[in-house]
Amino acid sequence: MPVTTHPARPIRRPRLLQDRPPLYQSIVGASPKMQRIFRLVSKVARTDSTVLLIGESGTGKELVARSIHLQSRRSQGPFVPVNVGALPESLIESELFGSVRGAFTGASGDRAGLVEEADGGTLFLDEIGDMPIQTQVKLLRTLENNEVRRLGDNATRVVDVRVVAATHRDLQREVAAGRFREDLYYRLNVVQIDLPPLRERREDIGLLASFFLDRASKQAERDGLEFSPEAAALLERYDYPGNVRELENAIEHAVAVAEGPKILAIDLPAVFRAPRLLPKEFGARDTEDLSPAVSLPAPAAAPTASPASDPRATWSLAEVEREHIQRVLALHRGNATTAARQLGISRTTLWRKLREYGLKRSGE
Ligand SMILES: Nc1ncnc2c1ncn2[C@@H]1O[C@H](COP(=O)(O)OP(=O)(O)OP(=O)(O)O)[C@@H](O)[C@H]1O
Ligand SMILES: [Mg+2]
Question: What residue stretches are annotated with the Sigma-54 factor interaction domain (predicted)?
Answer without folding.
Answer: 27-256
